[in-house]
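Progress narrative, Year 2. Work on dTDP-4-dehydrorhamnose 3,5-epimerase from Hymenobacter aerilatus advanced from sequence curation to structure prediction during this period.
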Amino acid sequence: MKANPTALAGVLLLENFVSHDKRGTFIKTFHANSFGAEQLTVDFRESYYSVSHKDVIRGMHFQRPPHEHDKLVYVTQGSILDVIVDLRPDSPSYLQHVAIQLNEHISSVYIPRGCAHGFLTLSDTATVVYNVTSVYEPSADAGIRWDSIGFDWPVTEPIVSGRDNSFVNLEDFDSEF
Ligand SMILES: Cc1cn([C@H]2C[C@H](O)[C@@H](COP(=O)(O)OP(=O)(O)O[C@H]3O[C@H](C)C(=O)[C@H](O)[C@H]3O)O2)c(=O)[nH]c1=O
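Result:
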């Protein structure tokens, strides 16, 4: 696994191990030694996935302290535009965002605690896997409005949940990280 830095401090684009043969494809998305060598968390406490239609936007989500978590995200079917916002006041990339296209199998994105995560579905459907380092705590499940982060989402009529449209704007967000 090769880790590549991004414009946001600590957010890494990871190149997955991918092997093709006549049977199909084999992909490795986690390797404790490689993660440890990059000082990445290896203690994932939950794993879940979502299946989204084209033009769906999910996000921008995070868990509030003390339930914040690191997150490893990858796509097992389809493609997404993965978007991360830095909510850490002490970070050199505070309040900045990055958008990374994730295509099935090829790469994963590692998102440190203190960042908000979301994505736009680019393909007809997309299956997105999340591995996180804390268990789900409803009272700490929070977010920032997807259209308040200064990113021009390449979609004309996004499909967004009422909850995601009810989050606070980034300019009004008071960071606890
Ligand atoms: C995360 C979670 C959610 N839920 C419930 C809450 C809702 O009733 C339902 C769907 O949750 P949500 O609408 O938050 O799902 P997404 O909008 O796909 O959020 C996900 O996608 C964005 C991009 C992320 O980065 C989040 O980490 C991830 O939660 O499952 C649970 O019961 N347990 C859980 O661990």
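DSSP finds one helix and 13 strands in the chain. The chain has one domain: 2-172.
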